[in-house]
């Protein structure tokens, strides 16, 4: 039984909030879900909602950044001093700057889609105001199989600028180029080597996702613009080397990029080999693309 016995999850009907609601419920906590569209406006706390917040051992804000920033002061004021305040925003610098004193607080960012499950996956954690319930929640995350990665707010946003904004922009740029090249994706998928198949899979995942999630990654992170600029400059650098026919410079580029990976080079090369080994060889066979045989009468 966790010491987080009564938890209020604001936005608990969403994917991230729902994941925490389920996990906490399985540990015996009483979970009360506050959904701004159904049963409570966290930016305008009425008496009933104030009573819920006052009785909670933990309040988790799994809401968009503007809502969280507008609500965080009043929420903390309604909570008891020994309770825990948590948010799950993907950008930390602004929410940490707005964090009120008087309650324990930790700012989490699960670095995965909740549908994948927490086991084996990283959860970035910025400890804002430490205390026993902060440590209790971090222990629970580890017991659920998550990997807690402690960082501060500025470092979190700089890292996620590379891990999320840069990565998503690269996949989206690949998609724009692919669309504008006007090739048949079915034929392309039939001949695609593993790196291209992987890129198609990433593009399909993002294109099928919730636009607001990917918009927030690009628009909210203060380091996203730097990441996109670096990506554009990197593509231009590769093009410049190739267009001037400098094969030696190209080889030097690969060497320098391998060096940038440092001691992670071998690990990630082996990871890539494992990923590629698990890919299907193609979506169609040669015979699938041939016309049916002519039957002689």
TrEMBL record:
Enzyme class: oxidoreductase
Domain Prephenate/arogenate dehydrogenase: 5-272
GO MF term (any one): prephenate dehydrogenase (NAD+) activity
Keywords: Oxidoreductase
EC numbers: 1.3.1.12
DNA-binding is among the record's keywords: no
Annotated InterPro entries: 6-PGluconate_DH-like_C_sf, NAD(P)-bd_dom_sf, PDH_C, PDH_N, Preph/Arog_dehydrog, Prephen_DH
GO terms for biological process, alphabetical: tyrosine biosynthetic process
Domain of life: Bacteria
Pfam families, A to Z: PDH_C, PDH_N
Listed SUPFAM superfamilies: 6-phosphogluconate dehydrogenase C-terminal domain-like, NAD(P)-binding Rossmann-fold domains
Family note: Belongs to the prephenate/arogenate dehydrogenase family.
PANTHER family in UniProt: PREPHENATE DEHYDROGENASE, PREPHENATE DEHYDROGENASE [NADP(+)]
Name recorded for this polypeptide: Prephenate dehydrogenase
Organism of provenance: Saccharothrix ecbatanensis
Taxonomic lineage: Bacteria, Bacillati, Actinomycetota, Actinomycetes, Pseudonocardiales
């Amino acid at each position: 039984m966790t010491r987080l016995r009564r938890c209020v999850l604001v936005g608990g009907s969403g994917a991230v909030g729902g994941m925490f609601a389920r996990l906490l419920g399985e540990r015996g906590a009483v979970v009360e879900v506050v959904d701004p569209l159904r049963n409570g406006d966290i930016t305008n706390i009425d008496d009933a909602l104030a009573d819920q917040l006052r009785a909670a051992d933990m309040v988790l804000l799994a809401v968009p950044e503007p809502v969280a920033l507008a609500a965080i002061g009043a929420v903390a004021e309604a909570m008891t001093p020994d309770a825990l305040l948590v948010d799950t925003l993907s950008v930390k610098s602004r929410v940490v700057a707005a964090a009120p004193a008087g309650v324990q607080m930790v700012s989490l960012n699960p670095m995965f889609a909740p549908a994948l499950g927490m086991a084996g996956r990283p959860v970035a954690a910025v400890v804002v105001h430490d205390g026993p319930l902060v440590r209790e929640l971090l222990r629970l995350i580890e017991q659920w199989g998550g990997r807690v990665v402690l960082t501060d707010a500025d470092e979190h946003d700089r890292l996620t600028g590379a891990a999320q904004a840069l990565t998503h922009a690269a996949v989206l740029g690949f998609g724009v180029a692919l669309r504008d090249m006007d090739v048949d994706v079915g034929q392309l998928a039939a001949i695609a080597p593993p790196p291209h198949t992987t890129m198609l899979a990433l593009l399909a995942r993002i294109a099928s996702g919730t636009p607001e999630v990917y918009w927030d990654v690009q628009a909210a992170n203060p380091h996203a613009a730097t990441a996109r600029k670096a990506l554009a400059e990197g593509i231009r650098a590769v093009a410049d080397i190739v267009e001037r026919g400098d094969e030696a410079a190209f080889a030097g580029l690969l060497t320098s990029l391998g060096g940038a990976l440092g001691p992670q080079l071998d690990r990630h090369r082996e990871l890539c080999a494992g990923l590629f080994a698990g890919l299907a060889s193609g979506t169609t066979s040669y015979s699938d693309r041939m016309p049916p045989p002519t039957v002689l009468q």
